[in-house]
Amino acid sequence: MSICDVVIPCRDEAAALPLVLAHVPADWNVIVVDNGSTDATADVARRFGASVVTEPRPGYGAAVHAGMLAATAEHVAVIDGDASMRLDELVPMLDLVRSGAATMAVGRRRPVGRGVWPWHARAGTKLLATMIRRRSDVPIHDLAPMRVCRRQDLLDLDVQDRRFGYPLELMLKASRTGWTIREIDVSYDRRAAGTSSKVSGSLTGTLKVAQDFAKVLR
After folding, report:
1. CA-CA distance, 173 to 24, in Å (whole number)?
2. Are 97 and 150 spatial neighbours (Cβ–Cβ below 8 Å)?
3. Residue 118 DSSP symbol
4. Residue 156's CB: how many other CB atoms inside 10 A?
């Protein structure tokens, strides 16, 4: 039985997955959700021991939700598949949730070098985190790029967004439901060579995410 199922939403992350899956904690199960990849993402994931779920609907929220439906462990985690963050840094988050100290533990990205986090992406994250703090009792500074909670708690929350607004809706609903949310620092590095960001890689990508967030905030 898996201690925790970790869901990794992926689109064209074949070059990054070997780095990501090199740090799977003992007794954890990995579910890679292939969200329309045109490369060998699914094949690489299986080669490194991950289960693969295919989600044809494009969108971060659609991929995460598909992974949650496929998970079977009591606790679930989510992390990006670009190798910018480490799977083993999810372990202390799981400890917080299992101990009862938090309903959900989330990561606060701390860049490990210069130029890791583009200015437009960092500014957008700071603005949205500030808005969440003002609208809720959640003292966060990032949008939960890594997170751990009980699977049933998350499904009961009934997050509906299937695009990039998913993390924002998650945080707002969690606050309204009375979740205890704890934020801890996590390392944030450059994404793997040979991959490109769907969000922070360009100003256009960041603006698209901002549009999704605006829909959630209405």
Report:
1. 29
2. yes
3. -
4. 9
Q: Which of 95, 98, 67 is nearest to 81 (CA)?
A: 67
Pure H helices in the chain: 17-20, 41-47, 60-70, 91-99, 119-135, 151-157, 166-177, 203-217
CATH of the domain at 171: 3.90.550.10
CB 10 within 8 A of CB 33: yes
Amino acid letter, residue 49? G
Give me the amino acid identity at 170.
L
Model confidence pLDDT, tens digit, residues 15-33: 999 999 999 999 999 999 9
Domain ranges, residue 197: 4-217
Identify which of 215, 87, 67 has the alpha carbon closest to the alpha carbon of residue 145: 87
pLDDT in tens, 132-182: 777 777 778 888 889 999 999 999 999 999 998 999 899 999 999 999 999
- Give residue 37's pLDDT: 97
CA atoms within 13 A on the CB side of 89: 22
Beta-ladder partners of 149: 76, 104
Amino acid at 126: K
| Contact in structure between 5 and 31 (CB atoms under 8 Å) | yes
Number of structural domains (the chain) is 1
Is the pTM higher than 0.90? no
